[in-house]
Design a protein that fits this description.
- The protein has one domain (46-170): Rieske [2Fe-2S] iron-sulphur domain (Rieske Iron-sulfur Protein).
- Helices cover 25% and strands 35% of the residues.
- It is built from three helices and 13 strands, in the order ααββββββββββββαβ.
- The strands form three sheets. A five-stranded mixed β-sheet has the order 1-4-5-6-13. A four-stranded antiparallel β-sheet has the order 2-3-12-11.
Length: 171
Amino acid sequence: MEDVETRAEDACAGCAGRREFLRDAAGIAVAVMASLGARRAGAQSIAIQAVRALAVRGAEATYPIPAADGAAIDRDREVIVARWGGRVYAFALSCPHQRTMLRWQEGEHRFQCPKHHSRYTPDGTFISGRATRGMDRYSVRREGGNVVVNLDALHRQDQDRAGWEAASVAV
């Protein structure tokens, strides 16, 4: 009997992780569909899409610059590349409060933490909630139609305000 219970526990060891992944993937799909619907209706919106780095060299990952205001999420490296207001930013995917994966709220045009509801503008500026600072930004530089993200240079708004503010490129 003990062997059967142990095997059942082992078989479900990854279930919670799979359920969380599927829930998050469904959330991204809903956000993309809502974004497409809003665009057809003529509303200004930001598109969300999944992306993989075009190249990775050491601590640098290269991504295409979004063609319009929007964001691309690289789940492998936990990076959000966002274009908004003529600038491109790269953010850590997790909320600075308790490291929960951030989500895009299409109707409000903002990022939000699903755990404690901290809210952020598309450029990562903190609006409200339990967090005490903006989304963490990576240093970036432009190379042609791409943006290169330095994954070793993460800037916290409360500890490195100048670095945080400089962590974007014009498009």
